Amino acid sequence: MTIQSPEIIIYNSAVLYTMQEPLSDMAKHVGFKNFFASTALKRGYVATWEVDCGRLYIKDVKISGYKGNGMLRFFPNGEDRVFSKWYSGIIEAYDKVPYLQEGVSGISQKLQVTVKKGIIVKEVCCKIYEGELIQEDSISKFSHEEVVSPLKSYLDK
After folding, report:
1. DSSP element (H, E) containing 152
2. Sign of torsion, CA 5 6 7 11?
3. Taking the model in full, what pTM does it have?
4. pLDDT (tens digit, 9 = 90+) per residue, 30-76?
5. Residue 80 carries which DSSP code?
6. CA nearest to 32, candidates 79, 74, 76, 77
7. What does the angle CA 124 – CA 126 – CA 132 come to, to the nearest 5 degrees?
8. Residues 122-133: tens digit of each pLDDT
9. CA 140, CA 114: separation in Å to the nearest integer?
């Protein structure tokens, strides 16, 4: 099986990559059909997500073979970003594309967020060295008043 293209997550201005597909349930709900299948993109789209003030939002959807606004295919009201109230699960996001991490020397970063109905309820940052976990830190759920980026400062260490 061909390795699939990752989703993109923006977390306090850091660009991270995940193989989870938080939009898949919504795709089924709206009856999304992929007519331009690529072996590297069987789901037919790549979504860009953003974590902002403790909530998960979808900001953009690029649909394979479609030049229009992919967000309109899923969310016809034309919002620039949509709160993902339909999604609950755990997302693991990496600073490098996950399948390319194998064999890469050096330290990489992983953010694991637990989401309940679009709300971030738990965040854990991990440092990984050559595929092995070397450090794990919980980040307390941030409030709307926080302006300091816990992951950005963590990544800058």
Report:
1. helix 150-155
2. negative
3. 0.74
4. 778 766 666 777 787 888 999 999 999 999 988 887 787 877 778 87
5. S
6. 74
7. 140
8. 988 877 766 666
9. 12
